[in-house]
Amino acid sequence: MKKFTNKYMKWGTTALVVLILAICFVCLIFKGEAIWSGLKMVSGVAMPVIDGLIIAFIAAPVLNWMEEKIIFPLCRKFHVDMLKPKVKKRIRAGSVLLTFLLFGLIMYSFFAIVIPELALSIQSIITRFPTYINNLIELTEKLLADNPDVEAYIESLLSTYSKDLDGLLDNKVMPTINSFILSASMGVIGMLKSLYNLVIGMIISVYVLSGKEKFASQSKKICYAFFERPVANQIISACRFTNRTFIGFLGGKIVDSAIIGVLCFFGTSLLNIPYAVLISVIVGVTNIIPFFGPYIGAIPSALLVLMINPVKCIPFILFVLALQQLDGNVIGPKILGESTGLSGFWVIFSITFFGGLWGIAGMVVGVPLFAVLYAGISYMVNRFLEKKSLSTNTDDYDELDHINAEQEYILMQNTALAKDAPSDNTKEKENGEESS
């Protein structure tokens, strides 16, 4: 009777879950905008908590390293009893304090050294911008003077589409500039709100880091309470894999981008490239975005160098290409290793897809997020194959034609050989005739 009841309980639970998912799907189709606006409102209210969790997630590896390499060895050296609850709390408080002091020192160094140079560079560019435009126009006129055919073609294009160009400037460009100025003025309020969320988030992150083991224990407890033991083990293992993937990729990418920024500064300084600090920051920050990041940073930097000093543009482009080759073949693999396990196609796909959904943030987190999804799908596929007693090795499916009833892997034959070689059906008929 108990087995009968459990059987129908599982059926009822499955039917309920399917019904709930169907209702959610229908609501998502017909009420998608209302649901999305509601989610945006909730995320806006919860943004300080989200910021705190993100800060704690980024700071947790530094905290662990600080305790394992500095705090715990010092406590053992001075024979401190780390098992006492009060001592553990004091050790954790000191570790959190040292972690935030380290982050504060890095941020202060950045703002004290880099930001003033950036401000001077941007101010100089704004002041001399008309001169740079004139230099670009003179360079263009010189190139056109040396190529009269190209000049005639461009003049014909301008005369043909001059009205369209005027309409584009009046109807599209100018309203866009006005809206940009308006949004920039409104952006001050948004910046203050973001600063408020960041401060509250830092306070929340202190509490999260102070009790991260307890939060992890409570999560495991809830997981084992609501799921069967094998399922709970798989969920916990998946969470650990997700944590390793995100920390390994994002942490490694930040370190990699910092190294590239420093190398770019030294290289541009040796080549006497103008605004070396500004260009190095642009190249280093955009390098965080996988695959497309180097191009996103190199193109505007090359245009800036072209406007200021056209002679330095070609050496700068060659230097950036060499730097990106060094990063892609030496520095990146050494730091990142196989943190995602994705091929080049899936990296481009994940950046394009999540970048289209969430913009720059999606381009940054898209690769580790898709790596987690890819690993989950691979796990499910392998489980289904194991239930069917089929191979989970991908190489076994190279040049596979079909799997017969005896679960033998029949490979594809070459076209030239396939005409002469008897098919499986012919072989079966011949074997049947021989047996008869």
Written description of the protein model:
The chain is 84% helix and 2% strand. The protein is mostly helical and 436 residues long. The protein has a two-stranded antiparallel ribbon. A hairpin with a 5-residue loop joins strand 1 and strand 2. Helix 4 packs antiparallel against helix 5 (148-210) and helix 11 packs across helix 12. The longest helix is centred in the middle third of the chain and has 63 residues, at 148-210. The chain is globular. The two termini are 54 Å apart. Mean pLDDT is 79; it is low at 415-436.
Task: Briefly summarize what is shown.
The chain is an all-alpha fold and 436 residues long. The chain has helices spanning 2-30, 32-45, 47-77, 85-146, 148-210, 212-226, 229-270, 276-286, 293-308, 313-336, 344-358, 360-387, 415-420, 424-435, and strands spanning 400-403, 409-411.
State the main characteristics.
mainly alpha; 2 strands; 436 residues; globular; disordered C terminus
List the helices and strands and how they pair.
Blueprint: H1 2-30, H2 32-45, H3 47-77, H4 85-146, H5 148-210, H6 212-226, H7 229-270, H8 276-286, H9 293-308, H10 313-336, H11 344-358, H12 360-387, E1 400-403, E2 409-411, H13 415-420, H14 424-435
Antiparallel strand pairs: 1-2
Helix pairs in contact: 3-4, 3-5, 4-5, 6-7, 7-8, 7-10, 7-12, 8-9, 9-10, 11-12
* Structure classification: mainly alpha
Strand order of the largest sheet: 1-2
From the alpha-carbon coordinates, what is the Rg to the nearest angstrom?
30 Å
Number of continuous helical runs: 14
Residue runs with pLDDT of under 50 for 5 or more positions: 415-436
- Separation, N- and C-terminal Cα atoms: 54 Å
Please bin the fraction of helical residues: over 70%
Number of strands: 2
State the oligomer. Answer: single chain
SSE order in H/E notation?
Answer: HHHHHHHHHHHHEEHH
On the 0 to 100 scale, the average pLDDT is 79
The share of residues in extended strands comes to: under 5%
| Biggest β-sheet strands, sense, barrel | 2 strands, antiparallel
Q: Which of globular, elongated, flat, extended, rod-shaped describes the shape?
A: globular
